[in-house]
């Protein structure tokens, strides 16, 4: 049986790892390797969005507004991943995008843990 929650968690954990691998490869001067990892990471963006949408449609009766907000913040996280990597590759400043990435990542994790399907450490 396909467990959407575990698939979603797995895809975003792998995406976070791939993101830091891509940043590390760039810092090591291995731009070709960074580009390959970046393309794989883009595939994981799609998988995160797909599994997140499946979770939303499966459990939208629980708290649709909060799940919708979490989905939008999740898209924000993906956007910040992409902005950091693209601007890093172009040699542009990424300070603001790193801050926005941390804020959005903490917010999406908080929302995910607070929602009815979450672990509830904040209850």
Overall description:
With 123 residues, this protein is mainly alpha-helical.
Q: Given the C-alpha coordinates, what overall shape results?
A: elongated
Strand content: under 5%
- Could you give the distance between the termini? 30 Å
How many helical elements?
4
Q: Uncertain spans, ≥5 residues at pLDDT below 50? A: none
Alpha carbon gyration radius: 15 Å
Q: What's the SSE pattern?
A: HHHH
- Describe the main β-sheet briefly: none
Q: Please provide the count of β strands.
A: 0
- The assembly state of the depicted protein chains is single chain
The helix fraction, in percent, is over 70%
What does the average pLDDT come to? Answer: 90
Question: What are the SSEs and their pairings?
Answer:
Elements: H1 4-27, H2 31-59, H3 64-90, H4 95-114
What are the salient characteristics of this protein?
123 residues, mainly alpha, 0% strand, elongated
Short account of what is shown:
The protein has 123 residues and is an all-alpha fold. The protein contains four helices and no strands.
């Amino acid at each position: 049986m396909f467990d959407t929650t575990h698939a979603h968690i797995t895809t975003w954990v792998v995406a976070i790892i791939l993101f830091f691998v891509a940043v590390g490869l760039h810092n090591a001067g291995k731009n070709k390797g960074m580009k390959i990892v970046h393309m794989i990471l883009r595939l994981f963006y799609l998988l995160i969005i797909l599994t997140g949408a499946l979770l939303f449609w499966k459990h939208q009766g629980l708290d649709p507004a909060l799940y919708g907000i979490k989905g939008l913040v999740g898209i924000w996280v993906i956007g910040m991943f992409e902005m950091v990597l693209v601007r890093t590759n172009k040699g542009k400043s990424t300070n603001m995008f790193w801050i926005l990435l941390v804020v959005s990542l903490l917010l999406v994790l908080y929302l995910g843990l607070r929602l009815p399907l979450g672990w509830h450490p904040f209850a």
